[in-house]
Amino acid sequence: DLNGVKVKDWMTKDPITASPDTETEEAAATMFTHGFRHLPVTEGNEILGVVSLRDVLSARIRRRSRS
Description:
By secondary structure, the protein is an alpha+beta fold. The protein is 37% helix and 19% strand. It has two helices and two strands. Strands 1-2 form a two-stranded antiparallel ribbon. A hairpin with a 2-residue loop joins strand 1 (38-43) and strand 2. The longest helix has 14 residues, at 53-66.
């Protein structure tokens, strides 16, 4: 029943995160290894954003097409 449940009840505790400097290959590998489709990007205790597997794969494709 979604009416009585709070996000904290089902969110991932202590998620694996990436830093802003994480290479796209490493982010993709992390998501594939752990079965994630989204990866929080943090710096210290601050959440900067969330990247999706689609974001990471698109960046890799763009990089290859420029080479």
